[in-house]
Write a structure and sequence with these properties.
The chain has four helices and 18 strands. It has 264 residues and is of the alpha+beta class.
């Protein structure tokens, strides 16, 4: 295969993947508590070095070009978003590290726990504290749903304690995962722990978070629309450049084939 065509095709695929990630970030630039994704690349070794068992003659000039690019697993950017006041008693924001812990309601145990920074909460018909966006129940430190008196005024302090009628009636769980690489997105603005062996270590277990709760506030999306749009323009140019190079290589191969065919 034409080496230059191979490199250009690889660059196009990498750029298309980055474009998809950036487009999703832009689409969630106004989503409360959304954490943007970060695309990571790594250089691929030349074919001869990547496959030591491959019987290939060294072509030093080509190997200096490298083997193109690969995409590494996409990471989540967990930096703190700006806080916006809503004056709604059931809206909560976390200042600092931590996540609200909710359940998808499909069973019990750690596999059904989800994590979010979206603190737009409300009460369901049963008086349980739930996410306003998807109805997932908010959990206390014992992983139990929080049930409140809909008729009573409530106050939530920085530790997540919920006070009604002058007494603490519940507490919102604020937990963190030491190794954020163990967290993956699931959709509906919630995240979960990655399955398999990565979840077995202590770095994947929940721990009390150091962040504090602010009542009547929500955390804005972590996406900067201007930076994301600029990155989209740059990646679009990269796709166009790689596509043009692929066209050049295709024309060169066509000319070579036609020339050698006439000589024969």
């Amino acid at each position: 295969m034409n080496y230059g065509l191979y490199l250009s095709a690889g660059g196009t695929l990498v750029s298309l993947h980055k474009q998809d990630v950036l487009a999703n970030n832009l689409a969630n630039s106004n989503t409360v508590g959304f954490k943007p994704d970060i695309v990571n690349f790594r250089a691929r070794l030349p074919e001869r070095l990547e496959s030591p068992t491959l019987d290939a003659d060294p072509q030093l000039l080509l190997e200096q070009l490298g083997g193109g690019q690969f995409t590494d697993p996409t990471r989540i950017d967990f930096h703190q978003g700006d806080l916006a006041s809503t004056h709604n008693d059931l809206d909560l924001a976390i200042q600092g590290d931590g996540f609200f812990v909710v359940t998808n309601g499909k069973g019990s145990g750690a596999d059904n726990l989800r994590f979010t920074r979206d603190g737009r909460f409300t009460l369901n018909p049963a008086g349980e504290l739930v996410m306003a966006a998807n109805g997932m129940r908010v959990l206390d430190p014992n992983d139990q749903p929080i049930k409140l008196d809909p008729a009573a005024k409530l106050h939530i302090d920085g530790a997540g304690n919920i006070l009604q009628n002058g007494a603490v009636v519940a507490r919102v769980q604020i937990s963190t995962i030491p190794d954020k690489a163990n967290i993956i997105k699931e959709g509906n603005n919630v995240m979960r722990l990655a399955g398999g062996k990565r979840q077995a270590g202590s770095s994947a277990k929940r721990q009390p978070a150091s962040g504090s709760v602010k009542q009547g506030w929500v955390e804005s999306s972590g996406v900067d629309p201007i930076l994301a749009m600029t990155a989209m323009i740059n990646v679009s140019k990269a796709i166009q450049a790689n596509a043009t190079m692929m066209q050049y290589h295709d024309n060169i191969m066509g000319q070579a084939i036609n020339t050698f065919a006439r000589v024969a």
